[in-house]
Design goal:
The structure is a single chain. The protein has about 400 residues and is mainly alpha-helical. It is built from 17 helices and two strands. It has a domain at about 25-45 and about 55-110 and about 135-300. The chain has helices spanning about 1-20, 25-45, 60-65, 70-75, 75-100, 100-135, 140-150, 150-165, 165-170, 175-190, 200-215, 225-245, 265-290, 295-305, 305-325, 340-365, 395-400, and strands at about 45-50, 55-60. It has a two-stranded antiparallel sheet with strand order 1-2. Helix 2 runs antiparallel to helix 4 (about 70-75). The two termini are about 30 Å apart.
Length: about 400
């Protein structure tokens, strides 16, 4: 244990030493928190119940509506799009200053986004084929594939917004907010077709993305705009839920007539504005914590280095534990049972470390697909005894510092 602690301390020192002094560490911390929120949220509100014919999807939110506040904590996609817009706008501005063309910049950005996806698609195509050939019910296979592939909508939207970064950097967030509001009025108030709601998939997530681009342009140097976002977004969310007929849960609930997330509604956008305001307010304290605690910074840097791997494989980790549990019993509490009691919640919390261990195995096997090919990160070493590395910097350490 002492040796492991020493090795972690050495790694933290190397990452600290390789981090450029000008880097805004709050950006990386916010992205890590957003990814962590998505992972824990899925693990807590997604369940696979054991039936006579196989596995079926379920959600504790459908059985215990009073758990809706859990979704307020773990539905952090708006923060991810905020950070994504900020990083992309900064990166594009730097690329233009270096003379890099838009085509080269967007190919590099999208390549980093989609490279890790191929491994997920190939593995699950093989698994699905094997299950069907082995006699598994189609409903079971479809449930598993939906859990793995449904989050990939995020990548498509994020890729589209990344490609539109030059436009998003010039766009006021009021325009996509107006589109979302108009679509909701048409859909819910005027009896418009359900398919029109999918316009909000792009418009809804464009709102935090444009806020991130505005942040990159210096729009939030003062606290007042962030306070207005937090207060106005929270008040609008409360009004829409209490008097506008929108559901309290900020994630989809099986069997519910309306979902705030699929597609995003005006309530989800208002909630995202509040989240973005809070994120912008805490970025100063987060940056200080990351500077004063090198070990915390190393964890955040390593999380950012593997953010796509964690996002793509966290559902596979949960399903693997669920499937292996069937070898022991088909009625393990918190794993195969109906998520309808407080006891299920307590049992589920005990399973989270097991899910995390399974995710670590997935990370060890597949994180290599997320590393840029043929790229060597520059070595930047800060001076001073507190930040001096104790050994030579390996490529992975440098990548973590610059992730």
């Amino acid at each position: 244990m002492r040796r492991l602690h020493r090795r972690w301390s050495d790694l933290a020192d190397r990452v600290e030493g390789a981090t450029p002094a000008h880097r805004d560490r709050s950006v990386d911390a916010l992205r890590a928190l957003a990814i962590l929120g998505v992972v824990l949220g899925h693990w807590l509100v997604t369940s696979l119940t054991s039936t006579d014919g196989g596995l079926r999807g379920a959600s504790p939110l459908a059985h215990m509506p009073w758990l809706a506040p859990v979704s307020w904590v773990f539905q952090t996609l708006a923060v991810f799009f905020l950070v994504g817009g900020h990083v992309a706008a900064q990166g594009y501005a730097s690329a233009r200053a270096r003379g890099t063309t838009y085509g080269s910049w967007v190919r590099r950005r999208l390549g980093r986004l989609f490279r890790p996806v191929a491994a997920v698609l190939v593995l699950w195509a093989v698994v699905a084929g094997g299950l069907l050939l082995g006699g598994a019910e189609w409903d079971t296979v479809r449930t598993l594939l939906r859990l793995v592939w449904s989050p990939l909508w995020f990548l498509l939207v994020f890729a589209a917004l990344t490609a539109a970064t030059p436009l998003a950097a010039r766009l006021s967030p009021l325009w996509p907010v107006a589109v979302v509001a108009g679509v909701d009025v048409w859909r819910f108030g005027l009896g418009g077709p359900e398919w029109i709601g999918w316009v909000n998939v792009a418009a809804g997530w464009l709102v935090p993305y444009t806020l991130g681009a505005a942040w990159a342009g210096g729009a939030f140097k003062r606290r007042r705009p962030a306070l207005l976002l937090l207060g106005g977004g929270a008040a609008a969310t409360a009004a829409l839920v209490l008097w506008g007929g929108y559901p309290a849960s900020m994630v989809g609930v099986p069997g519910a007539a309306v979902s705030n997330l699929n597609p995003p509604t005006l309530a989800a956008v208002a909630f995202g504005l509040a989240q973005c305001g809070l994120a912008l307010l805490v970025r100063g304290p987060l940056a200080r914590v990351m500077r004063l605690r090198p070990r915390s910074w190393a964890k955040v840097a390593l999380m950012n280095l593997s953010a796509m791997t964690v996002f793509l494989w966290h559902q596979t980790a949960m399903m693997s534990v669920t499937a292996l549990g069937l070898l022991v019993s088909s009625d393990l509490p918190g794993l195969h049972t109906v998520p309808g009691t407080a006891g299920w919640i307590a049992a589920r919390l005990l399973w989270l470390p097991v899910f995390a261990a399974a995710l670590a195995v997935c990370w060890a096997a597949f994180h290599i697909h997320e590393r840029p090919r043929g790229r060597r990160a520059p070595r930047t070493v800060r001076t001073g005894p507190a930040s001096r590395p104790r050994g030579p910097l390996r490529p992975s350490d440098r990548e973590a510092a610059h992730a």
